[in-house]
Amino acid sequence: MLIALAAVSWGTSGSVMLALEQRAAASPLLVGAARLWVAAALLLGAAATRGRLTVAPADRWRCVTMGACMAGYQAAYFSAVTLGGIVIAALIAICSAPLVIAALAPWWLGERLTPRVRAALGLGVVGTGLLVVVPHDGPDVSPHFLVGALLALAAGLAYALFVLTAKASLARSAPLSLTALAFAAGAVLLTPVLLWTEAPLRQLALGWPWLLYLGGVATAGAYAIYAVGLRRVPATVAGVTTLLEPLTATILGAALFGERLGAGGGVGALLLVSALGLLIVDRS
């Protein structure tokens, strides 16, 4: 349930990003860097308050790895949106991550893929594809399309590696401290992208309320409870459960911006719910 709640929170990011574009002309790269800094500050403060701003010595390098993965995800995904379009970027990044997790978890973490988890993975990926593609018009294929698609795939890979590394570290380190240090590393690593943004201080001044929400709620809060949940379930199950993110984004798009879900999108939502049901049964 914690992982599902985190995924629903992440699903609100698209709507907030639209508000930032309309009201602050915010650059996607600046949004990515700002949300990491806000999240890092809040998580570090919370961990320090509880006196647990430490991780196991063996996990220190994993914090840097997780930070690099999160920074890479932000840069690759938002750049993919610019080059390949939001539909293709979301489809490739969101659907590829649980596939990579499922492929690497048995080797990396020793997890066993049960038949129900395999079925849930298939239903979840197909459902996500229907949710992302069917309610929208086909993408405008441009000369930059291939680069955008490759960047989206890189984003999915970066997120998958973040999950696998976090899962391996949570056996020894507290979720809050691990997440705080990882996001601090990610914020530092992503900061240089601000050199490629125009008038970053003006964007921050105009968009700070939405950036605080993205960093505080949809990033710091969401990843904190995600880490707690990830400590208790296999990484593969977590990967499939986070497919609730595109479901949430699609529902908000239909409710707030008049996007039509359509019959195909409804089928996709049903498949996602069925996938989550299989996971619940498998863990009971």
Describe this structure in words.
By secondary structure, the protein is mainly α. It has one domain. It is built from 12 helices and no strands. The protein has helices at about 1-10, 15-25, 30-50, 60-85, 85-110, 115-135, 145-170, 175-190, 200-230, 235-240, 245-255, 260-284. Helix 8 (about 175-190) runs antiparallel to helix 9. The longest helix has about 30 residues, at about 200-230. It is globular. The two termini are about 15 Å apart. The mean pLDDT is about 85.
Tally of strands: 0
Low-confidence stretches: none
The class by helix and strand makeup works out as mainly alpha
Question: Overall 3D geometry?
Answer: globular
Radius of gyration: 18 Å
User: Please, how many helices?
Assistant: 12
Instruction: Give the overall average pLDDT.
Output: 83
What is the H/E string? HHHHHHHHHHHH
Helix content: over 70%
Q: Termini separation (Å)?
A: 13 Å
Total of domains? 1
**Largest sheet features:** none
List the helices and strands and how they pair.
Blueprint: H1 2-10, H2 13-24, H3 28-49, H4 60-84, H5 86-108, H6 115-133, H7 145-169, H8 175-190, H9 200-230, H10 235-241, H11 244-257, H12 262-283
